[in-house]
Amino acid sequence: MNVLWVLAHPDPRSLTASLAADGRRMLTELGHEVRVRDLHAMRWNPVVDAADFDHDPARRLFVGSAAKDAVRRGTLAPEIRAEQEHLRWADTVVLHFPLWWHGMPAILKGWVDRVFVNGFAFGVTDPETGASLRYGDGGLAGRRALVVTGVGARGAAFGPRGIHGDLDEVLFPVQHGLFWYTGMAPLRPFVVPAADRTTAGDYAEIRDRLRTRLAALPTEEPVPFRRQDGGDYDDDLVLRPGVAPGRTGIPAHLR
Amino acid sequence: MNVLWVLAHPDPRSLTASLAADGRRMLTELGHEVRVRDLHAMRWNPVVDAADFDHDPARRLFVGSAAKDAVRRGTLAPEIRAEQEHLRWADTVVLHFPLWWHGMPAILKGWVDRVFVNGFAFGVTDPETGASLRYGDGGLAGRRALVVTGVGARGAAFGPRGIHGDLDEVLFPVQHGLFWYTGMAPLRPFVVPAADRTTAGDYAEIRDRLRTRLAALPTEEPVPFRRQDGGDYDDDLVLRPGVAPGRTGIPAHLR
Lengths: 255, 255
Prior knowledge:
2 copies of one chain form a homodimer.
Chain A: E1 2-7, H1 15-29, E2 33-38, H2 39-42, H3 63-73, H4 78-89, E3 92-98, H5 106-115, E4 144-150, H6 167-170, H7 172-180, E5 185-186, E6 190-192, H8 200-215
Parallel strand pairs in A: 1-2, 1-3, 3-4, 4-5, 4-6
Helix pairs in contact in A: 1-8
């Protein structure tokens, strides 16, 4: 496999960075190619602005259409095109970050904001039908994607009735709204609970648990979200009445 | 009221910026004080690093404890302390942004990451019981908070059975995980659907709809999330069996 491992932690001595280094080593030993994007080390700029698109500052900026134009004209900023090349190269994408405020740290959120633009990751149409390819299809179709994250809370508080919300639902924006939307098949997230209270003695167990998941990366069954064009959604992109009848909310989007 | 209006859009001619300007004007006319934090205009740096905390770079950085130490010692970076002063001053906080990848643009996510730190917005204990104050109580208790956002999709696709997920659930990380967690009472989000396809002719309707919401800011009933210390959660922060029996997921956290 070609694995793109995107890492977002400010300290190279962190648990996050240590696990990433170990994961890279293990995947390499298994014969995979690994590229690491260490966003802090790269001093990645996470802020979208007109310069991303070589957009005339005298004209109002509509981000979506400016991005699509820039993709077509090949005028996206060079550092964005470089990241897109890494995504094209990859067949597996790992986003590795501490969960801050129930989402990605800003440096990673802005890697997504700037790189996964209209006309590249989405806003791509089927050449035959003209339909917009999304949710199970899209600009990044054929890839698998994995969240590796550490959370402050202990397990039960992120469970189905835990106060922080079920972690699978809290991560729905990433798993479904980002990965699946752009065509990538999301794997179950790898989670380190109580990450800021782990000790040196806990490390081997966490590392081994991650190694087990990484060994299964090529074969693991992805989360079974419904395909946009698989017949479950109507023309307004609402679940048809006969699909998961009477159910609402995030779990209804699982097959 | 003292309203802190935090704005995240790269173009001052955007729908987002126009609505913010109108909202500010209207609230001022109603006799409220309004401070606007226009994050792009401020060139806000959204990336957490050791310099935020005056942290010795020779020592490993644990973000949570480094932040708490810096709050106690008064050594948080001056631009962070300035934003915290605005939050202390406010009794109402508006976060105004286009919804990107089902969340805040990175510049705003990083305003939250850097400003809402341990020892300020959370990690605050009850001086009598020593309990950690969260979810309905916390460092920002007594304030109200409103999301104003524009989304690309039309209404039904963000409804209870829409493919993008129920917008109330997609915004749970902000409404519950950020606002409620730090003690702020979340109001229902104000949403502009199909925001990038609005025309000049749509503007007056959207503006007026927002004005109606803003006029009701001081009196509107907040979203009725359950308090952490209100008796509904057990010591592991899991809903007690008799509360919303048999229900799981995000709606179970509503009274």
